[in-house]
Structure formats: C-alpha cells, structure tokens
Specification:
Blueprint: E1 2-5, H1 32-44, H2 49-69, E2 70-73, H3 75-86, H4 93-100
Antiparallel strand pairs: 1-2
C-alpha cells in the first residue's frame, strides 16, 4: 500500500515528540451526563480523568488532521490516481455551455 501525504509543519509547542512540560490548562464546561460518561470511561481504563481527557482529545486531534492531510492507495488505485493527474484538463460540455451564456448579474 502506498501512502500519499501532504506535508505540513507542526507549530512550535504542538509537536508531541518535543518532550515539553504540560503547563497549559484547559477549562471545560460539560453537562452532568457527559461528566458521568467520561468519568465512567476513565475508571474503566483505570486512569485519572485528566489523563483520559487529554489522551482522548490529542488522539481525536491527530485523527482529524490526518484525515485532512493524507490518504492511502494500493498500487492499482495509485496508478489510476496518477493517470487522472497526468491527463489534460477536461471541461464537461454542460459547463462549457453554461459559461458561454451571459451572466444573469450583468
């Protein structure tokens, strides 16, 4: 499986490998039902609430960013993808017709 990745720069202080001190505070307001749910989950994982919330939030942040920065293709899909990138641009006939008419705003 091939990996295509758009490279992005991690801002200073956001690199989890930097071994930085955890000196930032988050203050969150949650509903009573959300509090009970998250506390139950942290107890099930045998970790404290702070660690559970931090790990879950960082994991979700990584997932969100990865979803926007990379995708995986197996070799046949990669070849198909590259063929689309390599071909000349194609203008659908309907779009050509639409843009050949005067704008309603003019």
């Amino acid at each position: 499986m091939l990996l295509v990745q758009r490279v992005y720069t991690v801002s200073q202080g956001m690199d989890p490998r930097a071994g930085e001190t955890r000196d930032q505070r988050w203050a969150l307001r949650v509903a009573e039902s959300e509090d009970a749910l998250v506390r139950a989950a942290s107890n099930a994982e045998e970790t404290n609430l702070t660690n559970f919330v931090r790990v879950a939030a960082v994991s979700e942040a990584r997932r969100v960013l990865a979803d926007r920065t990379r995708f995986e293709l197996d070799p046949p899909e990669w070849d198909r993808f590259m063929s689309f990138l390599d071909r000349p641009a194609q203008v659908p006939p309907g779009l050509r017709k639409l843009f050949s008419k005067p704008s309603v705003f003019e």
